[in-house]
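ok so i was messing around last nite and threw this chain in just to see what happens. nothing serious, just curious
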Amino acid sequence: MTPIHEPLSEEAAARLVQVAALSRTPLAIRGGGTRGLAAAPDGAETLSTRGLAGIVAYNPAEMTMTARAGTPLEVVEAALAEKRQMLAFEPCDLRGALGSSGIPTIGGVFATNASGPRRFVAGAARDSLLGVRFVNGRGEVVKAGGRVMKNVTGLDLVKLLAGSHGALALMTEVTFRLLPVPETATTIVVSGLNDAEAAAAMATAMAMSVEVSGAAHLPESVRGRFAGGALPDGTATVLRLEGLAASVAVRSQKLAASMARFGAVTHLDAETTARLWREIRDVAPYADGTPRPLWRVSIAPTAGPSSSPRSASKPASMPSTTGRAASSGCAWRPIPRPRSCAATSRPSAAGMRRCCGRGRRCWRRPPSSSRRPRRWRRFPQG
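result:
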């Protein structure tokens, strides 16, 4: 059985890394265990951050918080809800889609750069990260960034560690910025568009001054699984508006008038809007327990219609949930399990693809550990 270490302090974590470095023992960094996509190297021991929990500082007036890496995300969000504040980047919860368990942690959110539909407006998780404390491969405690917004000169270690999946260091404490919870929200639904028409409609909406904070195209095959079946028949291209009630009312009218030339337009209330975008964020239609490969395709927004993974077994009409952002896009696509994952995992000109099985990764980018300094190779790649 693989040894699991759960240090209760930063100093104890540093000592564990020092001992592992001296004995040349690989360490697999683990947060809440909700993703489980990276296979640990042979002989690796697990270093968990679950014992490093607790909110260190919270300043609602400055809209910043400092928390230890193992703090459950639900604890952070509960504290923010009391002051009507939120994490701007909408961290996604993929436990259902990946068939995993565990409890998401705030350190894991930043280690995986987990971001949701608001990313193209508020930035990804890395853009909200102000400062970190971490233990490097030598067992040294390092501090980078701070607790205020400011420009960074030299190497920006804060941004470097965000999304590194524990491959570069063990984050022990994170400081991040917050945003107020919008007073209300509404969703404009444009029905009956194909993929190309939906891409054009979303591009038009986001070029307007109405401040769209979320955009997605839901094909007919998955449309009924969202918002308890509240969406109209046909494909659904959904556009979210947030803010003050009076502002949202004016902007929604302007957006609806512009979208009317693409197709039938309907409005969703605030409660239905919250449920719909939570389900889009968490890829809810594919959290049904079915064991199958699930592709996450990162693409240019206008490349959505041609972004299907290459596979001889691809059905003629593939269910997909395509999120579109101002400068990047993302599509989730389940497909029948191919005979050889390697045969379908090549990136195309449209973008980069990654195939994730339920609870495990069946493809990842070619390893590049040979290019890293020797002291970093003890950590598993993300």
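not much to say yet. The two ends are 22 Å apart (CA to CA).
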